[in-house]
């Protein structure tokens, strides 16, 4: 396959508007089979979701120790339940790479039809992805990417660079009329490539706004506790700034606590991921949080659709090709007060 965008990794809702760019067309799968009376591929309507060949999908994800990761598991389960022809074999999930490899090998030995894998560590699990592919089991690599495209048939995931880019543009547009505007950044774990990608996108966007200067950056670790502690440090160090971009809505809960405790309301805040709590705060519009940039866990529902299509030898409804795509990168939409109702049902807890 053509290598997915390099901005393809994520730490470690049912289809809705959050995943429209990647998912709406996946719900109808177009058969590869043809006969003399069948219209050309680009003339065929998308098929509906009528039951087809039974497919057993093995799903292996990391431990759900974070709101977004828990939403990944929920999306996969709920999507599979919508199909009477899908049986989902789901592992317990683990952040221990050796344990997750063992879980995936068990699924391979069970001879599942298709595998969906969100690896705890893409590099470390590449070999087991290769093992599945060589055993004739197509792999849908979810978000954290394996080291080689030979280890998966299809990759689907989020756009970390795009998150930063869209957060930066949103803030830039809000502050473009303000002279000498200052912004700060509450990042995620700095040892993760995704954090660097989000920061790079943010910095690149701000280059379009010469009136804005980033004056501080602090790395947290995607937890409520770290968000609160690191935000408190930023607030102590920066007596005056105009906007904050926080990489993750889970750590944003803690950041908002620190902001409230400090009695600060003199700036706007943009979050990241798409938590229900963030959507509710944006809708209430009675605090600093004005928007969040999506990293939609609906990708797990889309992965189940793709796996089902692979197991049934189908393509994707809405596309002319007979095969599913080699890669799908989700769009990092900005959700603010103007469109939050559209996305509310996709928020994760």
Automatic annotation (TrEMBL):
Stored InterPro entries: Peripla_BP_I, SBP_2_dom, TAT_signal
One matching Pfam family: Peripla_BP_4
Leader sequence segment: 1-24
Principal cellular location given in the protein's record: other
Keyword Cytoplasm on entry: no
Entry keyword Transferase: no
Source species, domain of life: Bacteria
Location relative to the cell: Cell envelope
Start and end residues of each stretch annotated as Disordered: 30-53
Keywords: Signal
Domain spans labelled Periplasmic binding protein: 57-314
Family listed: Belongs to the bacterial solute-binding protein 2 family.
Protein name: Substrate-binding domain-containing protein
Source species of the chain: Streptomyces prasinosporus
Source lineage: Bacteria, Bacillati, Actinomycetota, Actinomycetes, Kitasatosporales
């Amino acid at each position: 396959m053509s290598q997915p965008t390099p901005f393809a990794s994520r730490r470690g809702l049912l289809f809705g508007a959050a995943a429209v760019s990647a998912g709406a067309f996946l719900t109808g799968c177009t058969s590869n089979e043809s006969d003399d009376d069948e219209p050309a591929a680009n003339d065929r309507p998308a098929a509906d979701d009528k039951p087809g060949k039974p497919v057993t999908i093995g799903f292996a994800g990391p431990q759900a120790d974070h709101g977004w990761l828990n939403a990944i598991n929920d999306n996969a389960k709920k999507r599979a339940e919508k199909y009477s022809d899908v049986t989902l074999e789901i592992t317990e999930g683990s952040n221990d790479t050796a344990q997750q490899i063992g879980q995936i090998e068990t699924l391979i030995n069970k001879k599942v039809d298709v595998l969906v894998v969100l690896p705890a560590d893409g590099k470390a699990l590449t070999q087991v992805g290769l093992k599945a592919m060589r055993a004739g089991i197509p792999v849908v690599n979810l978000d954290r990417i394996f080291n080689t495209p030979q280890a998966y048939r299809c990759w689907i995931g989020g756009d970390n660079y795009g998150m930063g880019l869209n957060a930066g543009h949103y803030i830039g547009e809000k502050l473009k009329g303000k002279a000498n505007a200052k912004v700060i950044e509450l990042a995620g774990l700095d040892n993760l490539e995704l954090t660097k990608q989000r920061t790079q996108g943010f910095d690149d966007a701000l280059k379009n706004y010469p009136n804005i200067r980033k004056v501080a950056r602090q790395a947290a670790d995607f937890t409520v506790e770290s968000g609160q502690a690191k935000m408190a440090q930023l607030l102590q160090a920066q007596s005056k700034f105009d906007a904050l971009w926080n990489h993750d809505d889970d750590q944003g809960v803690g950041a908002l606590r620190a902001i409230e405790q400090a009695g600060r309301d003199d700036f706007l805040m943009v979050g990241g991921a798409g938590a229900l709590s963030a959507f509710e705060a944006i809708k209430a519009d009675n605090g600093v949080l004005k928007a969040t940039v999506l990293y939609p866990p609906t990708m797990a529902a889309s992965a189940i659709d793709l796996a089902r299509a692979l197991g049934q030898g189908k393509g994707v409804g809405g596309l002319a090709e007979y095969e599913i795509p080699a890669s799908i990168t989700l769009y990092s939409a900005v959700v603010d007060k103007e469109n939050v109702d559209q996305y509310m049902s996709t928020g994760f807890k």
